[in-house]
Amino acid sequence: MNIVLLSGGSGKRLWPLSNDVRSKQFIKIFRTEDGSYESMVQRVCRQIRKADASALVTIATSKTQVSAIHNQLGEGVGISVEPCRRDTFPAIALAVAYLADVKGIDPQEVVVVCPVDPYVGDDYFEALKELERLAAGGEANLALMGIEPTYPSEKYGYIIPENEENVATVSTFKEKPDAATAAEYIRKGALWNGGVFAFRLKYMLDKAHELIDFTDYHDLFAKYDTLTSISFDYAVVEKEAKIQVLRFSGQWKDLGTWNTLTEAMEENVVGDAVMNETCENVHVINELNVPVLAMGLHDVVISASPEGILVSDKEQSSYIKPFVDGLDQRVMFAEKSWGSFRVMDVEEESLTIKVTLKAGHRMNYHSHRNRDEVWVVTSGTGRTIVDGMEQEVRAGDVITMQAGCRHTIIAEGELKLVEIQLGREISVHDKQKYELEYD
Amino acid sequence: MNIVLLSGGSGKRLWPLSNDVRSKQFIKIFRTEDGSYESMVQRVCRQIRKADASALVTIATSKTQVSAIHNQLGEGVGISVEPCRRDTFPAIALAVAYLADVKGIDPQEVVVVCPVDPYVGDDYFEALKELERLAAGGEANLALMGIEPTYPSEKYGYIIPENEENVATVSTFKEKPDAATAAEYIRKGALWNGGVFAFRLKYMLDKAHELIDFTDYHDLFAKYDTLTSISFDYAVVEKEAKIQVLRFSGQWKDLGTWNTLTEAMEENVVGDAVMNETCENVHVINELNVPVLAMGLHDVVISASPEGILVSDKEQSSYIKPFVDGLDQRVMFAEKSWGSFRVMDVEEESLTIKVTLKAGHRMNYHSHRNRDEVWVVTSGTGRTIVDGMEQEVRAGDVITMQAGCRHTIIAEGELKLVEIQLGREISVHDKQKYELEYD
Asked: Please, are residues B86 and B229 in contact by the beta-carbon 8 Å criterion?
């Protein structure tokens, strides 16, 4: 199976665990059999491998997620990187061009596209295989998954099939309705449109060339920022006459809010937390290194990270977005391809940051105009290059760098350091990158 | 008025804001008229000054609280420092010896003793003056305050007066009863014993000499650790025949739990916090520098500090102690006479701490056996002395100190630094202090 997972943008609905640089699909929140935790994207990839060990998985995403994907999935998945956000049709066009031109997939093969973040069981992946068979069968150009509604949701588009068979042709599509209209649709046998579909690669390449003037993947990538934003539903689905829908009645949860996310958690506590016996239906996800103590709470989610602390009634948690938008926040932690950082202290003219470099990784070679920096290595060994001078470093070593001085650090094993930034105008934008001579 | 405030030990009931080194009476939680916050001890001293501008205030406390008292009250109060904890009778004996021998108070003057932490109005201090008059009048050796009970509490001892007059002689004292017995006492006109009383200084000095073999304050201080622990009630009150009780019906709250403390707060939020409109009777006290977001909660207290995060139903919060006892915690922040510190990061072989030194203050001159240290000055100016070598320092300067090396830093204005401790056996006990040549 060729499967394209659409990995969406930053989410604020799961603040403080998701932020501008960490999307919800990368939060490690699901306990696995070996006792460790996996994220949504790790879970779905594990499930795909279980359903089809030889599946070719491609993740269509933005540049900001590439590090997180490599960190969590290794090199075993392809990544179609959107240079900027242009909605789902350009993203899918780019992904299919990537499959054809970079991965060399035969245009007659079928491609399945689905979001990266639904919480589903194994039967979902069996349904994906069925979709693949439908698309290969050729009766329709597009095979869609229609999810049996569990309530009259206002969050989804609806598919009205011609009949109630397991596989049916589509009569019409409906935009996100209000609850009353949704209930009416459901009475008529409507299904949720979860954005899951299959097609022959050639079909979608043709559609892409029809709507976009490009030669191949590299050309499309190069002109991506000139493309018009347009959704796949609008550009393709609503204009296609030959569509089949496959009815899916298995578990399918959209874990977009704390309320739904905690329903999917197998344990009530992730991280350092104590609950007394009077707590009921309480979930704590604590990424800080100090304990959370919860007493006498009901139907509450507590989530703590270096960005902040959320304490919310579970139902109320779905209304979080405007409040998080109202917080004017510096990014306090992030995972990078080379490791991670956490802001430990913010002062007017200094910033103290803990930096962890993965073994064999390094920072960019860079300088700052308006700040000096001090590194104190706290564990591990490696090498620094400062204005071209290389030296070995280990725990206890101190490196001071004046503004303008070019610097990097290369970790041998895992290396941790405290970085202290000093200056009147400390900004993440004050960074000039350079090539190293031997790069 | 000569007033002795008994300032008790560390409290865990207000975790994470109180800890082994910060008692509840020093938490700045009460909004003042000028918009700043004051602690219990600051509030009570302000109220005393308002009632009697020339009051001589002495705080009887342990060594661990001296820095906090100086920080919060300045030099305007006397401090009778108990070298170790020996219950209330030795503490009061030491305090009266201090008043007589250090402060030179006439033995015929009256002394009023009360706890440092009740939350009371101005009428309480008028009642203290009345107690003082009763003790001066000489009809009784002890004048006690009896607080009119508001419910059959199991937390207090009870005073049974001879009659229901405003001032009465005491018939008998009762230990903390169960609720049913308390209700019975209250029907008979019993009053709470809040530990508030007045006496002539001479009376208590005589009692002290009667029960303890000592010459003067300095002698008593020197042999304090040899004294037997005994409560004032047991040693004096229960054996004294001539006691008057003054009925007090004003506001008197014991702010020992989050439940009662938040009742006394004038605002629902102290620190960085946002509450949505569906929160009811929620209090947030946030000492961290990241926001708390509270949504849809009822009757909940949220408290966050570098020690941890409490989220509790208010009523349940009174059962906190065993849970906090179960947390095996390093002290993560503290106020000292010279400033404050906050632990920012704990690793196996390193500790990163933010240190703030007050203008003109300095650390002890000290060394460590098993750890190296690095200081990075992040703001302010001052001087370091390292193995006798003195140098001026300012923001950006880095000082490295090997294990065994003697070091201190002296702040000119307020000075902040990041201290990184490095070694295999980092412990707060690994500290050797030295005199400086010019001390």
From this structure: yes
Count of CB contacts below 8 A, A vs B?
Answer: 189
Give the whole-angstrom CA distance, residue A57 versus residue A76.
8
The three-class DSSP label of residue B220 is helix
Q: What are B115-164's pLDDT values in tens digits?
A: 998 899 999 999 999 999 999 998 999 999 999 999 999 889 999 999 99
**B82, B90 Cβ separation under 8 angstroms:** yes
B347 touches chain A (CB under 8 A): yes
A359 touches chain B (CB under 8 A): no
For residue B179, the distance in angstroms to the closest alpha carbon of chain A comes to 23
Q: Which residue has the tokens 């290969």?
A: A136
Residue B423 region by backbone torsions, left for phi larger than 0, else alpha for psi between -120 and 50, else beta: left
Average pLDDT over residues A127-145: 95
Question: Is A319 in the B-facing interface, judged by CB distances under 8 Å?
Answer: yes
Give the model's pLDDT for residue B327: 86
Question: Which of chain A's residues have a Cβ under 8 Å away from the Cβ of B289?
Answer: 345-346
Residue B312, chain A, CB below 8 Å: the answer is yes
Tell if the CB–CB gap between B292 and A308 is shorter than 8 Å. Answer: yes
Query: Would you call A184 helix, strand, or coil by DSSP?
Result: helix
Nearest CA in chain A to B295: A312
Nearest to A214 by CA among A72, A329, A96, A122: A96
Could you tell me if A7 lies within 8 Å of chain B, comparing CB atoms? no
Element containing residue A397 per DSSP (H, E): none
* Nearest-angstrom CA–CA distance, B243 and B384: 59
What pLDDT, on the 0 to 100 scale, is given for residue A439? Answer: 42
Residue B338's contacts (CB-CB under 8 Å, 6 or more residues apart) are B67, B357, B358, B361, B362, B363
Q: Which residue has the tokens 């000028």?
A: B34
Q: Is B179 on the interface with A (CB under 8 A)?
A: no
Confidence of residue B420 (pLDDT cuts 50, 70, 90): very high
C-beta separation of B270 from B14 below 8 A: no
Q: Who contacts A241 (Cβ-Cβ below 8 Å, separation ≥6)? A: none
Q: What is the ipTM of this complex?
A: 0.84
pLDDT digits (tens, 9 = 90+) for A181-190: 999 999 999 9
- Alpha-carbon distance of B70 to A375, in angstroms, equals 36
A378 contacts B352? CB cut-off 8 A? yes
> Residue range B301-325: average pLDDT?
94
Render pLDDT for B5-18 as a digit per residue (tens, 0 to 9).
Answer: 999 766 788 999 98
Partners of B340 in the β-ladder: B335, B356
Neighbouring residues of B369: CB distance < 8 A, sequence distance ≥ 6: B403, B404, B430, B432
Q: For B420, which of A315, A319, A378 is closest by C-beta distance?
A: A378
Is the CB of B320 inside 8 Å of chain A's CB atoms?
Answer: yes
- pLDDT above 90: percentage of residues in chain B: 78
The single-letter code of the amino acid at A55 is A
Q: Given an 8 Å threshold on Cβ–Cβ distance, is B311 in contact with A332?
A: no
Structure tokens at B58: 């002495």
pLDDT tens for residues A194-217? 999 999 999 999 999 999 999 999
pLDDT in tens, A241-293: 999 999 999 999 888 889 989 998 889 999 999 999 999 999 999 999 899 99
Residue A231 has pLDDT above 70, yes or no: yes
- Mean pLDDT across chain A, nearest whole number? 92
Please, which residues 366-395 of chain B have a Cβ atom closer than 8 Å to chain A? 372, 374, 376, 378-379, 395
Backbone angles phi and psi of A54, in degrees to 5: -100, 15
What percentage of chain B exceeds 70 in pLDDT? 99
A331: nearest CA in chain B?
Answer: B290
> For the sheet containing B350-357, what is the strand order?
B333-336, B339-347, B350-357, B415-422, B372-379, B398-401
Burial zone of A349 (CB within 10 Å; 0-12 exposed, 13-18 middle, 19+ buried): middle
pTM over 0.90: no
